[in-house]
Write a structure and sequence with these properties.
- By secondary structure, the protein is an all-alpha fold.
- Helix content is about 80%, strand content about 0%.
- The radius of gyration is 19 Å and the shape is globular.
């Protein structure tokens, strides 16, 4: 996306995600379902979306924008658990939302790609990238661990049926929003004072 621009890469990724959703919604075998999900995975654009958000926001507002994106991801996870549309309906929803996302991407102002051949500011920022990559890896590893172990634990140890898990997830999500936004606002003020 640095070379081609954020918008074309996001549009391509969302198109792949929508196509994978349609395939997964129409098939009736596990290998075909895996193929549809793999195609959806090829359309993963979270990194490009974060880069676009960083491009179009002021530095002091960036953490709030990133938090809103993260909350959107968490909210979509919760809504998908609560939606009574079945597996096929869920994949149709992902395809429809991918197309809606493409329309939203087209409404975002064009931002020129960042290419820094001279080794200036962007090259200086690339130094601690390994630390960022490691932290993101650990975050996703912990999230995956929780997604795999937490639901069965709620069922086996506490007798909470899967259909009832939203009663824990929704209040937790709302509580995190109430905690995160004031903290981010305070952090944004601190950053702007130090500039």
């Amino acid at each position: 996306s640095d070379r081609w621009g954020r918008r074309p890469v996001m549009l391509l990724g969302l198109a792949l995600f929508a196509a994978g959703g349609v395939i997964a919604a129409l098939v009736d075998s596990m290998p075909a379902l895996i193929a549809g999900r793999a195609l959806q995975g090829c359309g993963a654009i979270a990194g490009v979306a974060m880069a676009l958000a960083a491009d179009v926001t002021r530095p002091e507002r960036r953490s709030i924008v990133m938090a809103v994106i993260g909350m959107g991801i968490g909210a979509s996870f919760l809504l998908s658990m609560m939606a009574a549309v079945g597996l096929s309906g869920l994949f149709w929803l992902t395809a429809v939302f991918a197309v809606v996302g493409m329309m939203l991407v087209l409404s975002v102002p064009t931002v020129p790609p960042r290419v820094d051949a001279g080794g200036g500011v962007e090259a200086a920022r690339a130094g601690p990238v390994w630390l960022l990559a490691l932290s993101v890896f650990l975050l996703h590893a912990v999230m995956t661990l929780l997604f795999v172990t937490f639901p069965p634990m709620l069922v086996e140890r506490f007798g909470l049926a899967l259909a009832e898990h939203w009663k824990i997830y929704v209040p937790t999500m709302l509580l995190s929003v109430l905690i995160v936004f004031p903290a981010l606002r305070r952090m944004g003020k601190t950053l702007s004072e130090h500039r």
